[in-house]
Each structure stands twice: as C-alpha cells, then as structure tokens.
Design a protein that fits this description.
Blueprint lengths: L3 H9 L8 E6 L2 H17 L3 E2 L11 E2 L2 E5 L30 H8 L4 E9 L3 E6 L4 E4 L3 E4 L1 E8 L4 E5 L2 E3 L5 E5 L5 E5 L5 E8 L1
Helix pairs in contact: 2-3
C-alpha cells in the first residue's frame, strides 16, 4: 500500500522519490461552475489583503499584483490574515454562508482545514521561489504533516508553477495536492487574473 505521508516527507527534504504534487479529484461540473461564480463575485466585490510589506505572506517576495482573501478565520473579514497560519481551529469558520453558500459547502467538506484562502495573482505577476517546512514534531516519536491543496478557480495557459525541479500547470475544476515543503514559485504571464483556493490540513 502506498505511503503518502512518507512520500510527502521525502519531498519536503528534497528527495527525488518524494510526492511533490498530484491531482486528488475532479469536481462535478455544475458544483464547480457555481463555486467559480461565487469566488469571482467575491473577488470583484470584497476588500482583499495586498501581499506587500507587512503582509503575513510577503516573505514569499511577490512581484506585480498579489492579493489574498481569508475565507476561514475568527473575524469574518476577508482581509484579516492574522489567523491564517495558526494551527488552532478554535472559533475559525466561514462567516458568510448566506451570501456564498457554495463556498460554505466546500469549506464544510474539510472541517479540519486550518485555513482557507482565495489567492489572486494579476497579469505578469507571481511569487518568487521559496519553501516552507511542513513536517512538525511533537515529542520524540510523534510527528505530523501540514498538507496543502490547490483548487484552480480561474487560470490561463500562461500560468506556471515550479514545484521541486519541475514546472506544472493546474487545470480549472480539479483539486491538487501541492507540496509547499519543496522549493516552489508561481508565475502568471497571461493576460487575465489567476485565482486559486488554497487550504491546509494537518
């Protein structure tokens, strides 16, 4: 039987035989279309946080236009990133189920996710190569993985992501495991915004 946790950990330490990315599943088309509509409406009507100096994600050295909407937090503000990387789930939820019921449905499918974000990357924009350590130790023998997943909401053929030593293009309508423990970057050289839903699960 395949040991996914071991493969993820190997890639975290840059091992050749590790798991860097993999398509998890494809959404039912009607559900995804409704999700896409809600996400783009949210991006067009709500205030985002700008990934610039002082932002919790600015250490990734963004270039161009990078924005983030926090979907699961304690305040309900889409531009509140203060608990995005806190592993504690206490009082975290999606606060707008009436306005965005499909986003709420998606988030409810992953109750143990520590965060949910809608990340936007403008034309000729991206994130520079960086890596995050995703293997955590608790005591001498216990450890766990913080696994990241991407759902491309809107993309174009000129969006590319480096993960490890390879370049990938994610397609709309799918969900992917994304090993952010490996060196990775993102680049949008297309003529339209790229939006991904991104979330972490322990």
């Amino acid at each position: 039987m395949r040991n996914y946790i071991k493969e993820i950990a190997i890639a975290n330490f840059h091992g050749k035989l590790g798991l860097y990315t993999e398509k998890v599943f494809e959404f039912e088309s009607n559900f995804f279309k409704k999700l896409q509509i809600e996400c783009l409406d949210l991006a067009n009507s709500q205030a985002s946080s700008q990934v610039e100096d002082g932002h919790i994600t600015n250490w990734t050295s963004p270039f161009g236009d990078a924005v983030q909407y926090s979907l699961k937090n304690t305040s309900g503000d889409f531009n509140d990133t203060s608990t995005d990387h806190d592993l504690n789930l206490t009082n975290k939820k999606f606060h707008h189920p009436e306005k965005y019921p499909v986003i709420d449905k998606l988030i409810s499918l992953f109750p143990n996710a520590t965060n949910f974000r809608l990340n936007g990357m403008g034309v000729k924009s991206g994130l520079s190569p960086h890596e995050e350590h995703i293997v955590y130790k608790r005591g001498f023998l216990k450890s766990f993985i913080r696994a990241r997943f991407h759902i491309p909401i809107q993309t174009n053929k000129d969006v590319a992501m480096l993960i490890g030593e390879n370049i990938y293009h994610y397609e709309e309508g799918n969900m992917y495991f994304f090993n952010n423990g490996a060196i990775h970057s993102a680049d949008n050289q297309g003529n339209s915004y790229r939006f991904h839903i991104v979330f972490d699960v322990l």
